[in-house]
Amino acid sequence: MNGFRILLLFLWVLPAAAAPHLTRGPYLQLQTSNSMILRWRTDQDTPGLVRYGLTADSATNVARHAGALTEHIVRLGGLRPDTRYFYSVGRETNAWFNAPGDSFSFLTAPVAGPARSTRIWVIGDSGTANTNQFAVRDAFYRFSFGRQPDLWLMLGDNAYSTGTDPQFQKAVFEPYAWLLRQSPLWPTLGNHDAGSANSPTQSGVYYDVFTLPTQGQAGGMPSGTEAYYSFDFANIHFICLDSHDTDRSPLGAMAQWLKSDLENTSRDWILCFFHHPPYTKGSHDSDKRSDSAGRLVEMRENFLPILEAGGVDLVMGGHSHDYERSFLLDGAYGYSTNMAPAHFKNRGSGRANTDGAYEKPSGAAPHQGAVYMVAGSSGQTGGGPLNHPAMFLSLNKLGSVILDVDGPELNATFLNEKAQVRDYFTIRKK
Amino acid sequence: MKRSDARPGLVLGLILWAAPLWAHGPLHEEIVRLTAELQQQPDDPLRLARRGELLQLHGLPDQARMDFERLAILRPTDVTNDFRLGQVQLELGATHEAVRLLERFATHRPQSAPGQLLLARALVKAGRPRDAAEHFAQAVEVTAEPAPDWYLEQLRALRSAEAPREELLRCLDAGIARLGPLPVLQLPAVELEVQLGATDQALARLDALAARAERKERWLVRRGDVLKEAGRISQARVEYLAARQALDALPDKLRRAWTATELRQQVEAKLAALPTPAEAGKAQSP
Hints:
Chain A is α+β, with helices and mostly antiparallel strands.
């Protein structure tokens, strides 16, 4: 009798033990107005299927990739713009890892051009996989309850200390699993991520785990590389640069691409992000050529003139583990000691309820001023003098940034790990 | 996007060449720990190599060189150390020594893209652009996803070597074939086509770019410039007029933007500078 019971137990346990399990994701990548890429990982080679539809009950369309894999990448095409889809991922048509539902759904991007209320969550140097990171995340979830971000940005150093796959698992895919499956993530490479990745060959962990545009699939001009790219969302043009591992010279491909990309956009807003900030006096110093092998200085000297001529509105970086936010600036390409009154297009707070929002002409007008932000405290703080004269405010505080773009107005909020607003400002286009 | 190819040399490249920078704290602490361990075992090759790499990442190439030179004595046949030492010699300006080491590494590991690329860059610095161009081409050949920069570096090397324009074009077309019609590769190719008198090919390249661009007006201006350069004045005028029309058709906020008004002024100036049909006919008559 005992032998029979053991046999029954064995027969019951064996298939369960052998069944493939989801070990990562699903997560959303490369969102466009008519497509979305879903990725996930299983612990065994399996086929990869997605069923999707306009309601949880009608998620009956099926897309799949060829073959049996552990890294699953399925592109859903032919979708409607600005539309919510519900989905499941699975290995067979009768073996799904999740049921379609609110937390397994996504919105496609709206058609590029017309304005639409957009929320963007921005985190930098978040990849500590510790309670600091989780507190910043939870504060945002509380703050943004009921209003999912339409997309979110990672400003680099996404996984400490060397961007290995287990580190990405602990610092990105596990802590943000809930958000990753509902809102597309657009990252940039940080120096720590580059410990296990190589931009010139687009290889290594960072490039393995993310699917990023190379041919202008989501708007913008094709860059030919996942290291730097652009994309559109409604009336916003986003530009991601690689400040760590790509040629930063004016003759380099990245600078040349940036010029043509800026020439060809019609969006109302231009937001740029890269890891090494052009202005900082935190745990890094943008006045020192020796800091980070000159990357901060090179980004300021070589890329800010292009960005400002192209009408950039907001430039975001990390690297220094703090929050620093500038006045409305233009033309400050030298050291902080050389900053002059002419570099300040507006020396106010940018706060609409005190001395007024930063105002700019509509469209991508060149040299009308940009706000520069360091948001590198989403996982740790690093101190430093925090006295760069470009900055309206410098805080050695944990936190993240929320951008709300609504037609001609961009509202930015710095939220600390206790969900308290520690800074805010508005840029308004007239 | 894709899983890493298990290419020989890639792992080495990721470790040595990707320029990863650990935080100052952990990096410094690891150097101190390795130094203490090396005091007990001064000839431990693994520790010497690791400390050298960390010193290099920490911005101390002089000290890194000492570790790699010691390693070269201990392991004279270790070609991996040729890469390490070659890289640090290049950083320190010892170009010819770097070339010697990197050539030896590339001979033993021809499939290493980082090895080929670093050698090419060393050869540029050594004033051997023709050889450099060959190694840039090798680097591209052995890589699954080469960066656009590699083609531009190869192009610069070929220009320095005074290679014929047809060869420069072949370099760019190889990149376009691999990476698509990127503006950073197509625009220099347009210039070369114009210099070679291949106007229609230049226009075709511009059309490929314009097809993927949201805003057409600058591409129309460029078409006009190419046609003007070729002496096809009436066609140039058509393109400039089309550019002006495209500018006028922009939504109000874009049309009033400084970039658009400046471009419109340029178009007007270009139109005004074109010879009239009578002048053009006169200039063409013997």
